[in-house]
Amino acid sequence: MAANLSSVPTDALLDEIKRRLYLQQVQNDEKRLIFIGPPGSGKGTQAPILKDEFKVCHLATGDMLRAAVASGSELGKQAKAVMESGGLVSDDLVVGIIKDAVKAPQCLKGFILDGFPRTVAQAQKLESMLAADGVKINKAVQFVIDDSLLIRRVTGRLVHPASGRSYHTEFNPPKVPGKDDVTGEPLVHRSDDNAETLKKRLEAFHAQTAPVIDYYKSKSLLAQIDATKKPEEVHSDIRKSIGFIG
How far from each other are the two terminal CA atoms of the chain, in whole angstroms? Predict the structure, then answer.
């Protein structure tokens, strides 16, 4: 028996239709995204949410390299040898590891790539690798945030070493200054969470990634997201930039 919807407000019906269309898109569409942004810009907050929502995998370069080494694969052995010698893992080797990673079952509907590519040459190698499988990047999402705010975000971070719980002196302070909310144990600043170190990292990041941003912009694949907004607003903006309803 069909439901009687005559008493349901039109706005409520439209909202439900939009919701169902959005869920249908999420379930049916594959997504291959690149996240570009400096440390502290919010990539690590958004990636797990979108990973679960879109049923894709989150591929962070460092994690992939460690997983490849741990797996004992041929590529992993090559990467291990390079890293143990103090060298830099080549672009071809990283792209090969990504190629293996995206074949995992959890990557069947796509991926969020975080930390790669960092140069135009890497972007071109990634593009060629994907093209060989008949697929391509859907969107490169740039997390835009002023360096001064980023420095405030990062230098104010406090961590409870035993649990990994994190706080912020300004944005998420503990109940008792300098103490973990759960155990009451002291909180610490990470050694690299200081303004001088961060400024150098940001300078290097901007110099390295500016050409990559221009590369994806020239291909009409770049979405620039205001990362100073609240996390839920950033999440909404990313969804809209990918072309999803809601």
Answer: 30
Residue 208: C-alpha distances to residues 86, 150, 203, 211 (Å): 21, 18, 9, 7
Q: Could you tell me how far CA 42 lies from the centroid of its own chain?
A: 8
Candidate list 31, 32, 118, 153, residue with the active-site label = 118
Annotation marks residue 66 as catalytic: no
19 has catalytic annotation: no
* pLDDT tens, residue by residue, 73-110: 898 899 888 888 877 789 999 999 999 888 889 998 99
Q: Is 157 a catalytic residue?
A: yes
pLDDT in tens, 179-194: 999 999 999 987 777 8
Structural contact between residues 138 and 31, judged by C-beta atoms closer than 8 angstroms = yes
- The yes-or-no answer on residue 118 being catalytic is yes
